[in-house]
């Protein structure tokens, strides 16, 4: 990380810059308040946060990794199977809104979600260890979870056969051969067993998101520019993974910040459940693994 030379008398070294950014991430305070706590001006605080955020995002490839080798896939599927005996899973996917200020401009209303506030709808995937393996933080609040996935590189890699295994998603997603969602109206005992195992195993993504939000209260409501808000989301996700790998305990919040303090992602109750191959695959999967 490089220095920010604001003037000859007030240059912050890299450790001081990191401290300012971490203070911001770990609080719900305005930059002015963080600057006061760290003894720097709001302008300095803003520059430091953006510089540190960019430096962390530059390390994204090292801190966010989707299981793509046979050994990594085996570890993931075994870890997920241990939760509720659901085979073949390498990730759980969900969308979550991060509130932002009105971004302004001609497209501002696209960021207004169905709850009536401005947000970024972000896609997250995690593994059984509550480590994030994929994040997409560029979509406006009115976008549906399914559309974000359908236009993601993650989908492309599954379709091209670069990634193998099963993602678990909620009913907002289309059922596919590599994306298993709950049966909307379970009829048989096997379908009910499948739904229970699906929901229980998929729940790791809710836990991971709850931990991320608790560790970084700044994401309760971001007040920077769109580009900086997106970068802060990615940077804090990377830091979450680093903290998990180091077994850092979750902090005790100095104010009441619930783990699930953001609303549920956009869902379309009447989402069409797949291409036919997806539902056919799911039925075979249920008969093979949940029929007894």
UniProtKB/TrEMBL annotation:
Keywords assigned by UniProt?
Cytoplasm, Hydrolase, Metal-binding, Nuclease, Nucleus
Which GO MF terms are attached to this record? Answer: hydrolase activity; metal ion binding; nuclease activity
Q: Ranges for the DDE Tnp4 domain?
A: 93-241
Example GO CC term: the record gives: nucleus
Superkingdom of origin: Eukaryota
What does this protein need as cofactor? Answer: a divalent metal cation
The record ties this protein, via InterPro entries, to: HARBI1-like, HARBI1_animal, HARBI1_dom
Q: Where in the cell is it found?
A: Cytoplasm; Nucleus
Q: Write one Pfam family the protein is assigned to.
A: DDE_Tnp_4
Q: What is its main location?
A: cytoplasm
User: What protein family does this chain belong to?
Assistant: Belongs to the HARBI1 family.
User: What function does this protein fulfil?
Assistant: Transposase-derived protein that may have nuclease activity. Does not have transposase activity.
Quote the protein name from its UniProt record: Putative nuclease HARBI1
Organism (species): Eptatretus burgeri
């Amino acid at each position: 990380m490089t220095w920010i030379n604001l003037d000859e008398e007030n240059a912050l070294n890299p450790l001081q810059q990191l401290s300012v950014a971490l203070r911001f991430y770990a609080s719900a305070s305005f930059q002015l308040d963080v600057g006061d706590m760290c003894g720097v001006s709001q302008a300095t605080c803003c520059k430091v946060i953006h510089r540190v955020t960019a430096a962390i995002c530059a390390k994204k490839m090292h801190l966010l990794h989707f299981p793509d080798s046979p050994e990594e896939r085996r570890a993931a599927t075994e870890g997920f199977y241990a939760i509720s005996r659901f085979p073949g899973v390498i990730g759980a996917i969900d969308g979550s809104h991060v509130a932002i200020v009105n971004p302004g401009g001609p497209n501002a209303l696209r960021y207004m979600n169905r709850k009536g506030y401005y947000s970024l709808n972000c896609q997250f995937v995690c593994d059984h260890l509550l480590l994030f393996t994929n994040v997409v933080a560029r979509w406006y609040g009115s976008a549906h979870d399914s559309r974000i996935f359908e236009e993601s590189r993650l989908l492309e890699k599954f379709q091209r056969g670069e990634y193998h295994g099963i993602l678990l998603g909620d009913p907002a997603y289309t059922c596919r051969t590599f994306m298993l969602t709950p049966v909307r109206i379970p009829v048989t005992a096997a379908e009910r067993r499948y739904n229970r195992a699906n929901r229980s195993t998929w729940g790791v993504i809710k836990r991971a998101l709850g931990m991320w939000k608790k560790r970084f209260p700044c994401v309760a409501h971001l007040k920077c520019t769109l580009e900086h808000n997106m970068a802060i989301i990615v940077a804090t996700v990377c830091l979450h993974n680093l903290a998990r790998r180091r077994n850092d305990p979750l902090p005790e919040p100095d104010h009441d910040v619930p783990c699930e303090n953001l609303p549920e992602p956009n869902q379309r109750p009447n989402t069409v459940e797949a291409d036919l191959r997806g539902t056919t695959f799911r039925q075979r999967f249920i008969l093979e693994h949940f029929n007894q």
